[in-house]
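Throughout this chapter, every protein is written as a compact record of paired, labelled lines. An example of such a record is reproduced below:
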Amino acid sequence: MPMETTYNFYNPIQKESVIIDSGYKEYLPSKELRSYIACYWESNRERNYSTINGDAKRVVPDGCVDIIFDAKGSNAPFKGEVVGTMDRVLMLNEYGYVRNFGVRFFPGCAHLFIKIPLIEIKNSSISLASIWNKEARILEELISDSKSIFERINIMDRYLKKILYHNGLVDFNLLNILTKIYESKGNIGLKDITAREIISQRQIHRSFVNWIGLNPKSFIKVIRLQNIYNNALRNTNTNIFHIALSNGYYDQSHFIKDFKKFYGDTPSKI
């Protein structure tokens, strides 16, 4: 049964999403998958990012799990991996011409397609072949042979619909809790959530670590910081500390500490 609300409440964002000519583009999935997949995306360009020089590619936590097909070079084949949910920034070294094609799942949705407890790949990744076996290798070949992003999207759309048809059992308690977190923009405590639900904190914790990959407290913080980050990127003339204040941070030092873990630098460096 489809989840009808997720995409109405949450828009995960990376900095590349709002930079013109970044080589990064996002595409909507088919209507049947739109409640589960935030976007398909591609990134194609020459990259010379290095953590040594302090200009590494920065990936901030967004509560999502991605399947990424990566090709090191314009004619290289794609290899797939699953990148788990993060609770801290990821800094990447990238050199040469890099091509990526990705599927970004909404929080709580990847588990319908990737049948492992997602806590196992928190802040890490795993080869797609280790999960989907022969099917992963077939997808890698099909995507490597494809001529356009739209062919790649169609390939993944067909395969993910097939999986969803067999495995699409939604945890509606989790969906209800996620909706509350999104509506509050991460300004809600776990006690406030459980006071209104018929399941215990222990059950909620188990659902979060298995279906999302983070415990509830960490996930709520990610959503809160994503909202602040999103606002700061789209409203460059607004002081980020004012945005943080309007999102429940009353202690500037506490906000800076959380943001540095999320972004890898101070808020003024966005």
